Amino acid sequence: MFYKNLNIWFFLSLLISFVVLIPILTVFSSFFENTSNYYEVLKNTFLKEYILNSIFLLISVLILTFLLGTGSAYLVSFYKFPGSDFFKWALILSFAVPPYIYAYSLTAFFENYGTAFTVLTFIFGEANYNKNIPKFDGMTGAILSISFSLYAYVYILARASFLYQSQNLIDLGKNLGFSKLKSFYRVILPGARPAIVAGLSLVAMETLAEFGAVDFFSINTLTTGIYNSWIAFDDLAFANQISFFLLLFIFLLFVLEKLSRRKAKYHFNTREGLKQKEKIQLSGSKSFFAFTVCFLIFFLSFLFPLSQMLYWTIKFPENLFDLQITDLLLNTLYLVILSSLALIIFSLISNYGNRVSNNKTLNILSTLSISGYAIPGIILAVAFITFIAWFDENIIKSFGFLSIKKLFIGSVLGLVLVYFVRFYSLAFNGIKSGYEKINISVDESAYLLGFSKRKTFMNIHIPFLRNSLLFVIILISLEIIRELPITLILRPFNFETFATTAYISASEDLLEAAAVPSLFLILIASFFIIITSKYILKINNE
Amino acid sequence: MKKIGIITILVSFFSVFANYVFADGHSMEVNVFNARHYKADAELYGKFTNKTGIKVNLINGKSGALEKRIIEEGADATADLYITADAGRCGAMDAKGTLQGGLTSKAIKAAVPKNFRTSKWVGIAKRARIIYYSPERVTGAELSGMTYEGLADPKWKGRLVIRKSSNIYNKSLVASLIKNNGKAATAAWAEGVVANMARTPTGNDRAQIMAVAAGEADIAVANTYYLALMLSGKKGAEQQEAAKKVKAFFPNQNDRGTHMNVSCAALVKGAPNKDNAVKLVEFLLTPESQEHFTNNTFEFPMIDGVSPSPLVVNNLGLDFKQDMKTKLASYGKNQAAAVEVMTAAGWK
């Protein structure tokens, strides 16, 4: 029985899972090496600070993204008010602004003699406004930057869940005499809980892995702590300790997410017999309130950073002409296309392999291999370099072959490989959810009709999966356009993207110069988001 | 459709591979890992290529990540030169055994004073870490004879801003204090500095200067080129005005002189184009390049005979005593102790 299922698909899936697992295994194995004894006394102080900062950041971001995401999703899903059809998809645009670009905008606007100062001077004349302008830097800045950039995860999932909520249930609440507020608490929110928790756990993972914004505000979290002790001080033992805590956090989140997913299936069963939901038309002050809330969120999350970057581009136009925009665009697209293709093809293969071989070990390996998403990109990149160096020294050279380091470190190949590890989970799960909708009996019928495995795959599965594939491609593209730490460490000579150009200018205290690449990054990402959201709206028949 | 995709991937991977295999034959290039990513530097590399025909390949990035890559590449180094903005970093790379000797040509030795170079790395432009003050709120008498050591004086309580202890410029400054005054005295000093801070450290050097301009603090510690950058108008009219509200003060004029630091170029062990790397360093030390540095990055020239930017000369002054005794190599050596001292004092 077991051997019967061993075929080429099985081995391919096994190989892919293994490749994805390599850097993750390296992270662990490197931690058992001997390391320096610097700052022995201070380590406990550091560790406490990292943990407390991470917890504080995480909890604040979760609260804020919950309020922003669920609040706006509730308004646009249940009510009609001026602009509600626009906000439905426009609120997703915040995805186009990565936390680090949001951080640049916050600083630029609120710093001493910043944009806020200019605006106040312009309106009210000269005075020292600096003392009265709030300073959103440090921890506050990081919390705001991450929350406004990531709340869309909660928004999208909460809205999708609200849409599928049964009108009958809401009517039942009404019949019981619940007020709108009460039915929100007692009926709507509990019903959407699994989706909201799933959204929040994505936010949580991204927050824990966040590097750009947190580093910009120089806050010591577990991720920057690992980076510093590993990269700056070569202190692997301490990095190990910190990673342990980080992984503990992430593991907890995984468990939470899994638990809530299991519930989600149960809840979605109510989809049958769905009565078309009627949106309530708001009027007067209520309508104004709903509009204001949505507009504020849209303004703060998207228009504010966009206009700050635009303002700078106009104020310092010389930066626009200094930039090789076509090169940057081509480089970014090159990475996006290569990585999406690699991810799609290999996740298809491993999903199919899992389906046809139905093997327990393979299933576990695949589940493990998607954990790349939970490991901060910066750590993944360094682990990859460490692994290649080790593999080269100990295996390739012992056979007398030429060094492979140049092939993998500082090459597009290496870059795409690490993107692959990092975003494999997005692609794998996206396709998996599409596959789950194709009943296994479809395959069996195909075999009975004399279709080979390959033909079943090409002629039956692929057309079925087309929609999931499109969605996955756009998600991956968005991630790669915004991706920073991996690109920064592994890219070849003379190779820049919009993200790296923005980051490098910003870290040189040339925020004005960072504005142009940031602006382009936001525009390109927005373009992808608009396509995606139109697509989502279409499949929801909205 | 899918077949085309697979072919595209294969072709792309192959072309990347081929690039590396065939690129080995060329020697008219030099590979620079650059953690000092001033736009102006790129222009300078262009001039070098025009002059010598040697192509400069660049990877810009954060110093920590670039250093890690140099270490892991080991004997198969791709980097020839590592250029970064603090002597403490070059010193630390030397201590890890990732550099090699060779920057010892006559031209280099003649251009760079001894304490600003070793055989493995040399300073290519200088900066001083100095005190900025508000002339409205700080009197001449208060500043008279002011030293770095004096930053711990209780008279500055609640009046001082300086950036975080994780910042390399602060690490090198404190390392130089440890070299001159010993670790115990510096530990007590750090506690005094923390007690004097007007706020929890936040922001970059320019933010410290602006805090003085905005009235959040009376004195700030920051590098010299930041004020010139603000005065240049490249940061906008508001910051240009703000910069005029602060004055520069060079500490320790009556003893060892003001703390100096450099941007340094280090020769990587296993460098594939060692000769070209030496040529590039020599080029960076010519009067032409040095003038380019002083006018664009507002640093002090490394060599004699080149004057700093007029913005620096007019607003910061030219005749100050530089600390020429403290070897810059000590910044790297005392870095760990500096971090320890600052963290123990509760310097965020």
Q: Would you kindly provide a written description of the structure presented here, covering whatever features stand out?
A:
The complex is a heterodimer of chains A (about 550) and B (about 350). Chain A has about 550 residues and is mainly α. Chain A has a domain at about 50-315: MetI-like fold (Orthogonal Bundle). In chain A, about 75% of the residues lie in helices and about 0% in strands. Chain A has 23 helices and two strands. Chain A has helices spanning about 10-30, 45-80, 85-90, 100-110, 115-125, 140-165, 165-175, 180-210, 210-215, 220-230, 235-270, 285-315, 320, 325-355, 360-370, 375-395, 405-410, 410-435, 440-450, 455-480, 485-490, 500-505, 510-540; strands at about 80, 280. Chain A has a two-stranded parallel sheet with strand order 1-2. In chain A, helix 14 crosses helix 18 and helix 22 (about 500-505) packs antiparallel against helix 23. Chain A starts with 7 loop residues before the first helix and ends with a helix. The model of chain A is unreliable at about 265-275 (pLDDT under 50). Chain B has two domains: about 1-125 and about 260-305, 3-Layer(aba) Sandwich (D-Maltodextrin-Binding Protein, domain 2); about 130-260 and about 320-345, D-Maltodextrin-Binding Protein, domain 2 (3-Layer(aba) Sandwich). Chain B has helices at about 1-25, 40-50, 65-75, 85-95, 105-110, 140-145, 170-180, 185-195, 205-215, 225-230, 235-245, 275-285, 285-295, 310-315, 330-335, 335-345; strands at about 30-35, 55-60, 80-85, 120-135, 160, 220-225, 245-250, 260-265, 300. By secondary structure, chain B is an alpha/beta fold. In chain B, strands 1, 2, 3, 4, 5, 6, 7, 8 and 9 form a nine-stranded mixed β-sheet that branches. Helix content of chain B is about 45%, strand content about 15%. Chain B is globular, with a radius of gyration of 22 Å. In chain B, helix 2 (about 40-50) links the parallel strand 1 and strand 2 (about 55-60). The longest helix of chain B has 22 residues, at about 1-25. Chain B contains 16 helices and nine strands. Chains A and B meet through helix 5, helix 10, helix 14, helix 16 and helix 17 of A and helix 1, strand 2, helix 3, helix 9 and helix 11 of B.
